[in-house]
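Page 37, continued from 36.
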């Protein structure tokens, strides 16, 4: 097995990423956004017997104390069966990040290796296969969708930009503060827009000139991410979020997306949001623990 760093073109990286339905954090634009915000990125392809068997994008940054930090989030991704522990050892040993350094990895699936020291509990995300069929929806979710379809809401889908995008980003920042959680900052979204403006898709449902619910989707190859969503009190009453999400399912499938990442779920601390995602037909996926590669 051998590893090659930063010797692959963007289109070829994305073609390999599509083979394994790569999530957002292993897409080229994610690394490009990180670089635009002052970081560095290294992209590795692992080869065995003349064929690629793994991909790994590592985000890197140097702290103000001079410590180099490298993180492979939702990676490596495996293109073919291989010795995964050996592959991780190659990544650890050859990562182009000068010392002193910390090398962290959050595998897309658990990996058994004595070279991994878990630092945090695994998290659970959920993903929705597309195209979606109404029969796959939970009964209560499907009934809520029917109610929303009959409530007079007007749907809109467009490339995200200008004041509409800024309004959603601002609402998301306020929502994070009110609910006490943190997500990727607005400047990351704007950096992604600068790299791939057509990849940002804005969906909304409105009535009487007032937006009841809106959501921002990041389109990356044959997968996409439900990145930001916001509903008003009126929107929660009308079920606008269900209508918007169903419209996302339909439109992204039309654009060739086969899997939509709905993000993390926490059934203990945010049970309502977890039910909303899972009852839409999404399947839970337990990620590997964030671990130190030593």
């Amino acid at each position: 097995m051998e590893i090659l760093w930063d010797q692959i073109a963007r289109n070829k990286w994305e073609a390999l990423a599509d083979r394994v339905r790569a999530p957002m954090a292993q897409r080229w634009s994610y690394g490009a956004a990180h670089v635009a915000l002052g970081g560095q990125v290294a992209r590795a392809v692992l080869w065995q017997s003349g064929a690629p068997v793994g991909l790994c994008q590592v985000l890197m940054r140097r702290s103000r104390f001079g410590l180099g930090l490298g993180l492979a989030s939702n990676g490596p991704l495996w293109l073919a069966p291989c010795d995964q522990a050996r592959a991780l050892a190659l990544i650890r040993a050859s990562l182009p990040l000068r010392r002193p350094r910390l090398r962290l990895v959050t595998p897309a699936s658990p990996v058994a290796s004595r070279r991994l020291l878990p630092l945090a509990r695994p998290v659970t995300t959920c993903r929705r296969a597309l195209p979606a069929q109404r029969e796959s929806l939970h009964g209560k979710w499907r009934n809520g969708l029917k109610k929303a379809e009959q409530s007079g809401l007007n749907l809109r889908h467009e490339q995200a930009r200008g004041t509409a995008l800024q309004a959603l980003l601002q609402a998301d920042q306020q929502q994070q503060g009110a609910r006490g959680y943190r997500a990727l900052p607005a400047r990351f979204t704007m950096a992604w827009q600068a790299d791939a403006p057509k990849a940002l898709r804005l969906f909304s449902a409105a009535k009487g000139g007032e937006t009841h619910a809106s959501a921002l989707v990041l389109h990356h190859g044959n997968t996409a991410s439900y990145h930001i969503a916001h509903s008003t009190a009126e929107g929660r009453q009308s079920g606008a979020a269900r209508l918007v999400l169903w419209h996302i399912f339909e439109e992204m499938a039309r654009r060739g997306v086969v899997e939509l990442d709905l993000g993390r779920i926490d059934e203990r601390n945010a049970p309502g949001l977890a039910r909303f995602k899972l009852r839409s037909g999404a399947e839970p996926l337990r990620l590997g623990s964030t671990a130190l590669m030593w």
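The first helix runs from residue 10 to 19. Flag for discussion at group meeting. The mean pLDDT is 95.
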